[in-house]
Design a protein that fits this description.
DUF4136 domain-containing protein, 177 residues, single chain, Double Stranded RNA Binding Domain, DUF4136, 8 strands, elongated
């Protein structure tokens, strides 16, 4: 379980360490909410866990030197606090879980600059998904996701900026009622 956690954190770090002109321009954010839920009624949560997946058959990916899961949890805690939702283990109204994944063999259509034709290229990608679950019913009421490119040899500062951006933008999609 510890190795899965480490792999997940490492994967997320790579996701958020893409090399774009802007630190965050390649990160895409999406979210889906249960339209019947009253999000303003939720005031407490507890952590359910985190899950990671890695698709790197060639063993190319190099894990970062920072604890991604710890950083992500900190950022999620911060965003939930901003919404007036606090971490209480007993009688929590929400359960929070996040999923990280890295796919070093992800494919994308790119335009060949020589002939302007589309070609399929390998573009390593990563994603972070955060889910909020109603503790009473067990139903997922909201999922937010950040997807981005992976860049090798990114700095810790750049990775932290990308994580901060991703989590902040994900939670901007959480309904306020």
């Amino acid at each position: 379980m510890k190795s899965i956690h480490f792999i997940g954190i490492t994967l997320l770090l790579i996701l958020l360490s893409g090399c774009a002109t802007s630190v965050t321009e390649d990160i895409q954010i999406e979210a889906t909410a249960d339209t019947t839920s009253q999000f303003s009624d939720y005031k407490s949560y507890t952590w359910l866990g985190d899950i990671a997946a890695l698709n790197d058959p060639e063993g190319i990916w190099q894990p970062p030197k920072i604890n991604l899961a710890e950083n992500i949890k900190f950022l999620i805690d911060r965003e939930l606090r901003k919404r007036g939702i606090f971490n209480y283990a007993e009688n929590a109204q929400l359960q929070v879980v996040f999923f990280m994944g890295v796919d070093m063999e992800a494919m994308e259509l790119k335009v060949n600059p020589d002939n302007q034709q589309d070609i399929l290229e390998t573009v390593p990608a990563a994603s972070l998904a955060v889910a909020l679950i109603d503790a009473k019913t067990g139903y997922v009421i909201w999922v937010g996701e950040a997807m981005g490119d992976i860049q090798q040899n990114s700095t810790e500062e750049r990775i932290r900026k990308r994580l901060d951006y991703a989590v902040t933008e994900i939670f901007k999609k959480l309904p306020k009622d």
